[in-house]
Design a protein that fits this description.
By secondary structure, this protein is an alpha+beta fold. The chain contains three helices and eleven strands, in the order H-H-E-E-E-E-E-H-E-E-E-E-E-E.
Length: 177
Amino acid sequence: VDFSGCLASRKSLPGGITDDALISKAREASNSFFKILPNFICQQSTTRSYAGSDKHWRTQDNVTAEVLYEHGHESYRDIKLNGRPTGRTMMDLPGSRSTGEFGSTLRALFDPETEALFKFRANANLSGFSTSVYDLAVSRATSDWRISAGSQMIMTAYTGKIWIDRESGNVIRIEKE
C-alpha cells in the first residue's frame, strides 16, 4: 500500500480531516446535484504564473472563458487572453492550460478515492448564503487535475478553499491552486 499521497496531503494541510458533519452534508448534496444537474453556463478566470530563476512567482497572464455544462460534459467558449478574444480552443492556447475544473473538481473533492482533506477556517456570508469556509488539499497521488503545456502533461496536487452553505450543504464556491 502506498501512503505517500495521503502523507503529502497531511503535510500540505496539517490537522486536515476527510469528513465532518458539514462535509458529509456537502458530499450528499453534491451527489444529488449531479443526478439532477441542468445544463448551465458559468464564468472561469485563470491567472497563469511562472517562477523565474530567482524562484519568485510572477503573473504571466489571465485566461477567461464561458464554461458550458451540457448533458454531463464541459466545454469552453468565448476564450479570452488578457481580456482579448483568442479565436482558439482552450487546448490550442499557448502556455499551460487545464480543463474540467467545475464539474470535475466538485465531483472529485467528495470522491472517497481522492482522499481530500478539509480544515474548517471560518464562517462567512457569500452572495447571501451563510457558509462555512474550509481549506482543502488533494495529493498528487490521488489528484485528477491535469495541466498541459505543449506536449507535456502533469497530474498535480492542489490546495484551495471551499465555501459550503451551512443550511443546504450546497457548495457555493471553490478556489484551487
